[in-house]
C-alpha cells in the first residue's frame, strides 16, 4: 500500500503526471481539491478565515472569494502564516481520511498525493516515495503567460512566491523532467510506474 507524494512548482506539469499515473491505476488524491472542500460555505475553516481576514472575503452566497483572500494574504508573510495555520491542519486531517479510505477499498492501491506545498507543509510525512515534476523557471513562466493568460509580471510574481526549485529537488526521490514534449513526460511516468516497487524498496534500505 504505497503512499507517494507528487509535487512541483506552478506550471511544472504536475497535473499531467498525476493524470498519467491515474491512467495506470493509481488513486490520485488532489490537495488543491481538498483545500476547496474544507473551505465550503458553513465549514469551520471558512468561518475562521472570515474571522482572520474579514467578512468581505466572502461572496454574497457565503462562498469564499479566493481572489479577495489572495489579495489580502499575497506578499505578506504574516498573513500567509495565519492562512496556513487555519487551512493546513484541516487539509492534513481530510487527506489522511482519503488515504485511509483508498487503502480500505484496495489494500494494494498505489495512492498518489498531488500536493503543491509538500516542501512547505508535508515533507516530513511518511511517504514511500517523493516525485518532483520539474521544468526550468523560464519554461514555467512561458506556460503561465501563453497557456494561462497571466501577464509577465504576474507570472514572475507567482514563481517568486513559491519555494525554490532547489528546495524541491533536494527532497526528490524521482524527478520527472517536463520541459520536453508530452510524449517524453509520459515516457518518464510510464517508467516510474514500472519501476515503482524497486524504487520504494531501495529507498527503504
TrEMBL record:
InterPro entries membership: Depp_CoAkinase, P-loop_NTPase
Gene Ontology MF annotations: dephospho-CoA kinase activity
Residues reported in the UniProt entry to bind ATP: 11-16
UniProt keyword Ubl conjugation, yes or no: no
EC number: 2.7.1.24
Reaction equation(s) it catalyzes: 3'-dephospho-CoA + ATP = ADP + CoA + H(+)
Keywords: ATP-binding, Coenzyme A biosynthesis, Cytoplasm, Kinase, Nucleotide-binding, Transferase
Known pathway: Cofactor biosynthesis; coenzyme A biosynthesis; CoA from (R)-pantothenate: step 5/5
Chief localization: cytoplasm
Location within or outside the cell: Cytoplasm
Family, as annotated: Belongs to the CoaE family.
Function: Catalyzes the phosphorylation of the 3'-hydroxyl group of dephosphocoenzyme A to form coenzyme A.
Protein name per the record: Dephospho-CoA kinase
Gene name of the encoded protein: coaE
Amino acid at each position: 500500500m504505497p503512499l507517494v507524494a507528487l509535487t512541483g512548482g506552478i506550471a511544472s506539469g504536475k497535473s499531467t503526471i498525476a493524470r498519467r499515473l491515474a491512467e495506470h491505476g493509481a488513486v490520485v488524491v488532489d490537495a488543491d481539491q481538498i483545500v476547496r472542500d474544507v473551505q465550503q460555505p458553513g465549514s469551520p475553516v471558512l468561518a475562521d478565515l472570515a474571522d482572520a481576514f474579514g467578512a468581505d472575503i466572502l461572496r454574497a452566497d457565503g462562498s469564499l472569494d479566493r481572489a479577495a483572500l489572495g489579495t489580502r494574504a499575497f506578499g505578506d508573510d504574516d498573513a500567509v502564516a495565519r492562512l496556513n495555520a487555519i487551512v493546513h491542519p484541516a487539509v492534513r486531517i481530510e487527506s489522511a481520511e482519503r488515504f485511509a479510505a483508498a487503502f480500505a477499498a484496495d489494500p494494494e492501491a498505489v495512492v498518489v498525493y498531488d500536493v503543491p506545498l509538500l516542501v512547505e507543509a508535508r515533507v516530513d510525512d511518511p511517504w514511500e516515495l517523493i516525485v518532483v515534476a520539474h521544468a526550468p523557471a523560464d519554461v514555467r513562466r512561458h506556460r503561465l503567460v501563453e497557456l494561462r493568460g497571466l501577464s509577465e509580471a504576474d507570472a514572475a510574481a507567482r514563481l517568486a512566491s513559491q519555494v525554490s526549485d532547489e528546495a524541491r529537488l533536494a527532497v526528490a526521490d524521482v524527478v520527472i523532467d517536463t520541459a520536453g514534449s508530452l510524449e517524453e513526460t509520459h515516457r518518464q511516468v510510464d517508467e516510474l510506474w514500472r519501476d515503482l516497487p524497486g524504487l520504494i524498496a531501495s529507498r527503504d534500505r
